[in-house]
Amino acid sequence: MWLSVARSEPIFNLKVSFSSSKPVLQIDCLIVGIGLVATGGRLRAEFITRDRTGNSLSFGVLALICIAFVVFPILGLAYYFLIHHSAPILWSSLFSAVVNSVVPSLVAITIGMIIAIPTGFFISRATSKGVAFLGFVLRLPLGVPPLVAGIMLLIVFGPNSPIGKVFHGRLTNTLIAITIAQLFASVPYVIEGSRGAFALLDEEVMVVADSLKMKLNRRLLSIYLPMVWSAIRSSLVLGYLRGFGEFGAVLLVAYNPTSLPIYTYVSFEGAGLPSTVTPVLVTLVISGTVAYLISRIAWPTKFIEGGFSYFRNQAKKRYQSNSKVERGDFVDGASFISVEGTVGGFELDINFTIEPGCSVILGPSGSGKTLTLHSLANHRINGVKLSIDGPLSGALQSSIGYVPQRLGLWPHMTVEQNLRLCIDVSGSDLEISEVLEGLDILELRGRMPKELSGGQYQRAAIARAMCSGGKLLILDEPLSALDLALRRSFLSLLAEHVKSKTPYLIMVTHDVDEALYLADSIVVMSHGEVLQQGTPSKIIDSPYNRAVAGIAGFDNIIIDRDQQGNGSLGDRAYFYSSDVVLAPIDVLVEVGLKVLGDYQVVETRPSTRGRLVTLSNGENTISGWIPPERITAYQNGEIVGVGIRKERYFRFPPE
Questions:
Q1: So where does this one cross the membrane (predicted)?
Q2: Which residues pair with 569 in a beta bridge?
Q3: Which of 93, 499, 532, 563 has a CA positioned 20 to 30 A from the CA of residue 180?
């Protein structure tokens, strides 16, 4: 019989069985790896090395040691208090010491929260060596002995210091002195906790916030802090406990009025351990209670957003004023974009033009597409310089609708709240319900991002970008999680949105069909540079080189040479060496066809276009489509002839 007190995997089990007419009682505490077995009235301890799933419990044993090391002294204090009588104490003095510790510690942690959290954010975002050294200096109080900290504070705030003289010596032996000492002890914990929390923020979440042109204080209060509040709240608890228990620094700068740690020390020195038990228990109760209350503080979202109502109204006025400008007047002419720099050894030298309408960027992974979009979305990247000459520069001065590759919905907000913040910041007059209904996700408005599927998440991110109210929409592979049935309808929706709401659309995709359907202009990139730019027909009909042809879907490469090294294509010969590039759809497969010669069937796979067949002649491996109207199903190893549909192929110099 197994009895479990845990909700999932048992951490405590009781087993009763009978062996040789003797009852056997077994108690297993799986989480810590200790078992107690009683057999025939004898009790023995067993060390459990694995749980019921076969996992090692070594970490559980280490956890047990840690828990015991921390908990046993607390239990020892409680035990001592129960069996020994505490010496009489003067309750008024104890109460005064409590006040002298609690009030300054709360003031100190409040001041620390106001000044340390922005400091942690600043250090987490900066990359210079000077800021790194500053972070090191700010950590020093974490390891400085308390008495040394007190000496440093006396030098700066003591009666004979320049600052102390200004305040006529009132910065020592006062509640202000206790507050200063506790602040010095607690602030580094809040700074370090905040720095670590902000450093873990998803970069794309921050890029989206940058693209909306929000002020830093709005980004901090509405987006960044709510996302990391639980971690920062923990640092506030640590800071409070450290400041509340500070002894050495307080001893030097404020022996009087007496704080609780000093009161406890004086009691121990005067009357020994019995007189110390009560103030120690009071210290534990107060510190634990206040720490618990701090840990339960929720981020005041409604209060914060209510405070931004004035700025919301100002944004709406700006949007209405900008809307009076005629669309054509604002976007006439082409804009030249230059993105240059080096990031982690990757060199970026991107130059292309953009005109009103839909511009699509094609390129393999690692070609610099996302870095280019980040720069256009107003996100500063160290080592990268963005230059824009033309009317698009005006569009970058207002909010930008941006859908990053990982979509970047703010996880602490519902779908509707994500959209609402964009509308509030931009002042847009769009109705949230209309945008969500257009993307068929109206019923998801109250869900959190973690509750969405991949396709729903992607549509919610597109909806938020549409609510930006700006002149530029930037989408980084926005339809990759959607099924084929939805993609075409959303492409039409994006095209209509550009015509009516947003003059410029820049989209990255790996799908050539998406690019051909949506684009007015296609930019082909590779290895940090632009290979070719032009209309869809120009890219498809006249690719600049073999790399462009491959990116555009012409991924069959045929290398054929005669004995003199001249290029050839089946029975056609050329007086120069070249490689032939063609698309799978332009390859004809049929027994007896001799244009490209005989190939052996390597593999056939079904597809909505028919059957995709992989072919090889020993030197070249190519792919071709067998259309659905032809029911021929070739077998692996079969020899077939290969031709070219409509003589559609390109010749490029060999690589």
A1: 24-45, 57-82, 102-124, 136-159, 171-191, 221-241, 247-268, 280-299
A2: 572
A3: 93
Residues 531, 529: Cα–Cα separation, whole Å: 6
pLDDT tens-digit profile of 72-122? 888 888 888 777 766 677 788 889 999 999 999 999 999 999 999 999 999
Render 244-284 in DSSP notation, one character per residue: HT--HHHHHH-SSSPPHHHHHHHHHHHH-GGGTHHHHHHHH
**388 touches 336 (CB < 8 A):** yes
Q: Is the pLDDT of residue 256 over 50?
A: yes
Integer Cα distance of 108 and 104 in angstroms: 6
At position 275, the amino acid (one-letter code) is S
In CATH terms, the fold of domain 91-304 is MetI-like fold (1.10.3720)
φ/ψ of residue 342, rounded to 5: -130, 125
CA distances from 70 to 63, 290, 490 (A): 11, 20, 58
- Residues 557/560/564/567 CA torsion (nearest 10 deg): -50
Q: Is 286 exposed, middle or buried (0-12, 13-18, 19+ CB in 10 A)?
A: middle
Work out the number of other CB atoms within 10 angstroms of the CB of residue 512.
Answer: 19
What's the chain's Rg over C-alpha atoms? 35
Instruction: Give the orientation angle of helix 415-426 with respect to helix 454-466, to 10 degrees.
Output: 20
Residue 473 in contact with residue 504, Cβ under 8 Å? yes
Instruction: Work out the average pLDDT over 419-433.
Output: 82
Structure tokens at 11: 């951490």
∠ CA(340), CA(344), CA(345), 5° rounding?
75
Return the amino acid letter for 563: Q
The tens digit of pLDDT for each residue in 518-528 reads: 889 999 999 99
516 C-beta neighbours (distance < 10 Å), count: 16
Sign of the Cα torsion 498, 499, 503, 504 reads positive
Reported confidence tier of residue 57, pLDDT bands at 50, 70, 90: low
Residue range 281-307: mean pLDDT, rounded: 84
* Fold held by 325-541: Rossmann fold (3.40.50)
Q: 554-652: what CATH class?
A: mainly beta
Domains of the chain by residue range:
2-80, 91-304, 325-541, 554-652
CA distance 116 to 130: 18
Q: Is the peptide bond before 628 cis (omega within 30 degrees of 0)?
A: no
User: Looking at per-residue confidence, does 20 or 166 come out higher?
Assistant: 166
Q: Which residues contact 482 (CB under 8 A, 6 or more apart)?
A: 455, 458, 459, 490
Interatomic CA distance for residues 202 and 317, integer angstroms: 32
Distance from C-alpha of 381 to C-alpha of 359, rounded to nearest angstrom: 23
Residues 6+ apart with CB under 8 A from 492: none
Among 467, 449, 305, 331, which Cα is nearest to 396's? 331
Beta strand 572-573 with 529-534 is: unpaired
Look-up of token digits 């067949």: 613
Place of tokens 């109210």: 469
The neighbouring-strand residues paired with 599 are: 640
Q: What is the dihedral of CA 52, 56, 57, 61, to 10 degrees?
A: 160
Contact (CB, 8 A) for 191 and 119: yes
For residues 339 and 529, is the Cβ–Cβ distance under 8 A?
A: no
Average pLDDT over residues 350-361: 90
Instruction: Take residue 382 and report the two structure tokens written for it.
Output: 């160290």
Contact 29, 12 (CB under 8 A): yes
